Amino acid sequence: MQQFIKQLAQENDFQATRLLKILRGVQAQYLYIPKEAIEQLAELLNIPRTQIQNVVEFYSFFHLEPRGKYDILISSSITDLMVGQEELIAYFAEKLGVKIGEVRADGVVSLNNTSCTGMCDQSLAGLVNGYAITKLTKARIDEIVENVNKQLPLDQWARDLFDVQDNIIKPDLLLNQKPTQGEAINATFARGLTETLSEVERSGLRGRGGAGYTTAWKWKFCSEDEGICDVSVHQQKQRYIVCNADEGEPGTFKDRVLLNSYADSVFEGMTVAAAIVGATQGFIYLRGEYLHLYEKLEGILQARRNANLLGKNILQHGFDFDIEICLGAGAYICGEESALIESLEGKAGIPRNRPPYPVTSGYLGKPTSVNNVETFLAAANIAIHGGEWFANLGTAKSKGTKILSISGDCAKAGIYEYAFGTTIQTILNDCGASDVLGVQVGGPSGTFIANDEFERKIAFEDLATGGSFIVFNNSRNILDIVHNFSHFFAHESCGFCTPCRVGTSLLKKQVDKIVEGHGSAGDIVALEELCQIIKNYSHCGLGQTAANPVLTTLERYPELYQSMLKKISYEPGFDLDKSLETARRMAHRDDAHAHLAQVED
Hints:
By secondary structure, the chain is of the alpha/beta class. Strand 11 (401-408) and strand 12 (414-419) form a beta hairpin. Mean pLDDT is 91; it is low at 226-235. 44% of the residues lie in helices and 13% in strands. It is built from 26 helices and 15 strands. It folds into 5 domains: 2-58, Orthogonal Bundle (Arc Repressor Mutant, subunit A), CATH 1.10.10; 70-165, Glutaredoxin, CATH 3.40.30.10; 169-391, NADH-ubiquinone oxidoreductase 51kDa subunit (Rossmann fold); 401-476, Ubiquitin-like (UB roll) (Roll); 479-600, NADH-ubiquinone oxidoreductase 51kDa subunit, iron-sulphur binding domain (de novo design (two linked rop proteins)).
């Protein structure tokens, strides 16, 4: 073990920033992270043992106790539950002879639930030793069980078990483009760096990860302390370009498809950004569930180096830039840009206090621009075609197109691209959705809209989204959806701040109580107040949006929540409405919970 770990650390230049990669190697070898490995790595990397312990405990894909030789995780996202996840994982457990959450006695296999794996268009989905398995049925489960019991190596399993399809249903402006290698880079230098930045600004491109910050301004702020777009000046100070490919929002899988089929354009967009900002190093933070893409992307990067599209003096334009892939380890919070940077540095992905912002103090304290996969794809094409080409589509405040990941109760789940301003009804017609109850736009952190709101539009000024679009028909129970989402947020909270750490746990329990029919009128009041506390006082975006599933559905379906409450009788003269109003006014006081308890009684 000592020799293996020393070699692993040496291969990673004894850099603490590569701790996640090193720990992945250790776990792949030993099926967990042994205590002895932590002790040795602390010495080799010159970091505290407690820091490594903290990292191991933070990420869901790392374990301090041995897992099975075949570690199987089944997605428990809402789209998986909609196709019978609970029945199928129970069938899996029975056939394997192992309890869910445990390792089989012989140590060969372990089975557990996991959060969304980014395969919502191919549910039921899961992972085996980190590699995606899709479209699970009892027949495919039987085949997997046979492979496991024979202890057949993964490379000898039938390839169709690992088949991950793009499912591009409706391409538009961006998905219809296939630029040649180097086309965007050459166009950028032919036009000029300052002029290309102006084209990006003219295009109105905003971040496609959901936040919607203006891309050109982010790049300006990242380089404004020196002469903008001056390569000779830029390279005197280190800057970084980071591609956020940690799309952990349930229902989102567009970035997976873009990296599988448009990686060259994404890397080209990163290179254009690097030239403009003056970065010499880039990172793509790839979510751990996309391990199946890792080797392919490494191969594309090496091919670009061989073609002088990365490395020294790129295409003889006088600037250097390279890209490194960092693979995540199962933490939804790392989709937040400062948490992502912490993870890139080999730490637990806990969001930073801001300011300072990453554009001035990001990776290793240096100016860093973090942009979404789709943003870089758009930037590469804007560099070629110009800003007007992009800005001609969309609305006044939302220019261009948006790529959506559509799943749930529809005939054609997959990837769709629409000009901003497209109505929800148009999208539902295109994907073959009928008898629709509602749509979750933007994933659990987004907005649930009812079937009387389908004339609303995909746009930053109306329904903003990172790309998740989940359809629910009238056979679904809204409270089942809220139940799943509240459990997701409680599980994914990083634990840094009390409003989120404690609040999401309390919210989960409160929803459970109501869904199980044990709630009373006071519980609805407590639920609303708790939502506002979590939303208004949490440290980062996870907590600030964790209450959205409750708030958006409670607003639209109050009668549904009321119907789940216990039928109780009151003493003569008891005014329930007056007591509830008093509870709302007292919610900020120390005795608020006592009063709510009185209302319940």
